[in-house]
Design the sequence.
């Protein structure tokens, strides 16, 4: 898409620039906290930790220390990034039949929806390996934000309105997030003093303070025996090699199982490399991209699972034969007739943020409570909203999950297992150093958003802010329709309809964070997403 094809209000947006470093996230307070840490001599990882903690106050309805996530880290001298898996895990008592006789809502709200949180263990491991400032100093901005309160933004208000009836059923969550039984209006300050106290405790006792001691006891007391002290004490992060592919003269690195998103990203971009081209028309490239999305989602349920358990081999899904077979079936003037398990669409509670520093450190983290407000459970006196990650498993052998993604044979509920995710943090390296760093939030839309940002930047030469702001498409095979954002031109919609796509307008709830490293010129640029009222800050 060329600039003159963009809506006027999206033309030539300027990225945030920095010479000493940049940070980009869903909230200006979080991005500023990261830059303050960089200015104080902290590493990129230190900054990302402080950023994440502030996000837990500024966006508590979709991220926080009651959840988990994935992080990609690169340091000078490394040939590729390393990625840290701090995904939540199922309690030891969980098994494939756990949810069969429970209400349908049991996997999305309440005690049985909660997995063992990995967030504090992940942030602690990152700090141990790459931190420079003392652990306790990284909590200062978050403690201040929690005590003072953060103003409700329009997204927070919208989501809270939609969840009012459920919030009202959970007294602790209602006490924190409703005002006289109603959602707070935009601009209302929401202080979280109990979370501030929790942060002060963790600043003093370290990450292990979450998994043992009084805080752990409070978490367990809220879950009525669903989780044990051993479940918390035995949680471990996993360092894993990235999933990688040569692309556009560089090397693209992302995450592998238990996330399905990384594999799908490489599939989409690999198919675009074979059938699309920057020199082709917008209409042709959009069609190729929609078809690549459909194909990748068709194989999703067969190609991902927890690698610590018996699971699929991803290699056949990135083989030369796989790409040749599908690219040969793709046609320019029509859509493929695909068969297989049914998929549908939804959104969820996820955040993604990125930091780069002048000393060469780069980190991108995607973290989540899963759905909006997670499990709706807040352990008394903690201010911590717990995740509902259990719904990301195949909880019923013949029933889709809360994102309406199909049951997957490798993703059955099992104690100690990590469920499949859509998280897709990605680093594109050029000449041995990171060039583009991208992450997104929004359930199944995460992967399609990351793919389009990379295409916008690398194919079309957009600056990083333009690449993030540009209108997006989304197709996940079933339901068999192509979502387009309101900004997509009617002429493009008509062209896609003529090729067989069932085009529907849909406001994209996926929001991204991205940055670009201009090593040769000595500066960084970052782009935040208007879809989340995100913000970038630079030094």
Sequence:
């Amino acid at each position: 898409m060329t600039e003159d094809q963009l809506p006027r209000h999206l033309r030539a947006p300027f990225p945030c620039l920095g010479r000493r470093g940049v940070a980009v996230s869903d909230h200006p307070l979080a991005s500023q906290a990261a830059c303050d840490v960089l200015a104080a001599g902290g590493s990129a990882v230190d900054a990302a930790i402080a950023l994440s903690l502030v996000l837990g106050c500024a966006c508590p309805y979709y991220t926080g220390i009651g959840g988990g996530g994935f992080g990609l880290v690169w340091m000078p001298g490394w040939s590729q990034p390393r990625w840290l898996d701090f995904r939540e895990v199922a309690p030891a008592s969980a098994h494939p039949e756990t949810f069969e006789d429970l209400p349908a809502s049991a996997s999305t709200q309440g005690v049985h929806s909660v997995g063992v949180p990995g967030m504090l263990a992940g942030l602690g491991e990152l700090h141990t390996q790459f931190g420079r400032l003392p652990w306790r100093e990284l909590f200062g901005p978050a403690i201040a934000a929690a005590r003072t309160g953060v103003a409700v933004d329009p997204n927070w208000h919208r989501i809270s309105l939609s969840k009012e009836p459920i919030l009202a059923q959970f007294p602790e969550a209602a006490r924190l997030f409703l005002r006289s039984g109603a959602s707070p209006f935009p601009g209302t300050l929401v202080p979280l003093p109990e979370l501030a106290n929790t942060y002060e405790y963790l600043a003093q006792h370290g990450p292990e303070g979450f998994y043992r001691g009084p805080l752990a006891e409070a978490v367990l007391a809220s879950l009525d025996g669903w989780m044990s002290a051993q479940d918390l004490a035995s949680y471990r992060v996993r360092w894993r090699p990235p999933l990688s592919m040569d692309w556009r003269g560089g090397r693209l690195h992302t995450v592998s199982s238990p996330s399905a998103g990384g594999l799908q990203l490489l599939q989409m971009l690999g198919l675009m490399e074979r059938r699309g081209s920057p020199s082709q028309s917008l209409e042709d490239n959009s069609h190729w991209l929609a078809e690549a999305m459909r194909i990748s989602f068709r194989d999703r349920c067969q190609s991902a699972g927890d690698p610590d358990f018996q699971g699929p081999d991803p290699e056949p899904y990135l083989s030369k034969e796989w790409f040749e077979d599908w690219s040969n079936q793709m046609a320019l003037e029509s859509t493929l007739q695909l068969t297989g398990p049914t998929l549908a669409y939804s959104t969820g509670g996820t955040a993604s943020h990125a930091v780069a520093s002048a000393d060469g450190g780069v980190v991108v983290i995607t973290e989540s409570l899963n759905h909006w407000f997670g499990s709706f459970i807040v352990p008394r006196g903690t201010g911590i909203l717990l995740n509902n990650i259990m719904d990301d498993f195949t909880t019923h052998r013949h029933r889709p999950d809360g994102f309406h993604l199909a049951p997957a044979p490798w993703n059955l509920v099992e104690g100690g297992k990590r469920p499949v995710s859509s998280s897709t943090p990605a680093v594109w390296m050029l000449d041995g150093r990171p060039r583009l760093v991208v992450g997104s939030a929004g359930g199944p839309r995460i992967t399609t958003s990351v793919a389009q940002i990379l295409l916008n930047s690398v194919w079309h030469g957009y600056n990083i802010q333009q690449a993030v702001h540009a209108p997006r498409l989304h197709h996940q095979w079933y339901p068999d329709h192509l979502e387009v954002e309101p900004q997509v031109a009617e002429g493009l919609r008509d062209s896609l309809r003529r090729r067989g796509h069932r085009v529907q307008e849909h406001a994209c709830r996926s929001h991204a964070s991205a940055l670009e490293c201009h090593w040769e010129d000595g500066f960084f640029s970052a782009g935040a997403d208007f879809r989340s009222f995100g913000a970038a800050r630079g030094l």
Q: What stands out?
A: The chain has one domain: 1-149+191-529. The first strand starts at residue 16 and ends at 18. The chain has 16 helices and 19 strands.
